[in-house]
Amino acid sequence: MEYIERRAHGLLSGRSTKARISDLATLGEPACAFIESVVAETLRQKYLAGFDLILELAGSPHIEQLNIVTLNHDTLAEQFLAANGVGFVDGFGERDGDVRWSDDRVYDAPSARVRLFKLHGSVNWYSFGDSASRTAILLGANLAAAKDGKGHQLEPMFRRPSFLSGINKATAYQRGIYADIHFRFYDLLRSCDHMVMSGYGWGDTVINFQLDTWLDRRRRNTIILLHEKPEQIVERSLIMASAYDGRVRSRQLICIKRWLCDISLRELEPHLLSGTGRV
Questions:
Q1: What average pLDDT score do residues 162-167 get?
Q2: pLDDT at 122
Q3: CA of 79: how far to CAs of 49, 58, 97, 122, 257, in Å?
Q4: What secondary structure letter does DSSP report for 9?
Q5: Which of 99-103, 127-131, 144-148 is least confident?
Q6: Domain range summary for the chain, segments of one domain joined by +
């Protein structure tokens, strides 16, 4: 920040270094919002290849409940499940005009066999309201024209969607919808003993601590890691790297050097059948 402050010259009006860095933050906020908006628009694309394993897991008679936990902001998992007729709950209620409001209670429905948890938010989540905000999934394409089921105009708090990025995610985990969904994730770790992991780069310290604690809690807790070169991602997390060799030897961490798109349920079943049926 000090380097940028020195290079910014006349863009910053503050007289002291502290004041100029404050000016820099004022400029940086809309710049970050612009970047997030561009990323969000890019992630709206539809690309449904490579998810066949998820479909097999959702339909397996040996799996009592499938819980899909993702840090991605895109909607590819939802699109794929819907396109293949798989019912699932995602933490939002029934349609209300142009939106579906956040409703944590849907996860407790007896019919919730496939559940989706998006720990970092989503490109179709938006915050609405004036003094108090509510999060909803926007069903239409026009945010400015969104209305509820009674025809009332909805006021978006921000024009960009609600998802987490940057280095301050851990703080956001304690607020609003993110607090609710991370509570659900913590509770999920207490009831599941097998996890199929693919695509996670092990770069989130809070999540890594939770995974490490989960592996320590019960000897039968197992991560099945799908990655062509697992040693590359282990190096990104000191928390996981410190116990990596021991986890592999004890079979708590099973590394399969294949991507999710290249493996079938038949190949995973020997590792899953010893569990409780909640994945």
A1: 79
A2: 93
A3: 11, 14, 20, 13, 27
A4: G
A5: 127-131
A6: 2-42
What is the predicted pLDDT for the residue at 241? 81
Helix-strand-coil percent breakdown of the chain, rounded to 5?
A: 45, 20, 40
Phi, psi of 132 (to 5 degrees): -120, 135
pLDDT tens-digit series, residues 33-43: 788 778 777 77
Q: Which residues contact 86 (CB under 8 A, 6 or more apart)?
A: 55, 58, 59, 114
Eight-state DSSP code of residue 10: G
- The torsion region of residue 229 among left (phi > 0), alpha (psi -120 to 50) and beta comes to beta
- Residue 142's contacts (CB-CB under 8 Å, 6 or more residues apart) are none
Residues with Cβ within 8 Å of 270's Cβ and at least 6 positions away in sequence, in order, are none
Cα gap 223→208, rounded to integer Å: 12
pLDDT for res 125: 94
- pTM attached to this predicted model: 0.83
Average pLDDT over residues 197-222: 91
Residue closest to 70 by CA, chosen among 135, 122, 139, 138? 122
DSSP state of 230: H
Measure the CA–CA gap between 63 and 193, rounded to whole angstroms. Answer: 12
- Of the CA atoms within 13 Å of residue 214, those in its CB half-sphere come to 23
Distance CA 248, CA 114 (A): 29
- Going by C-beta distance under 8 Å and a sequence separation of 6 or more, which residues neighbour residue 6? none
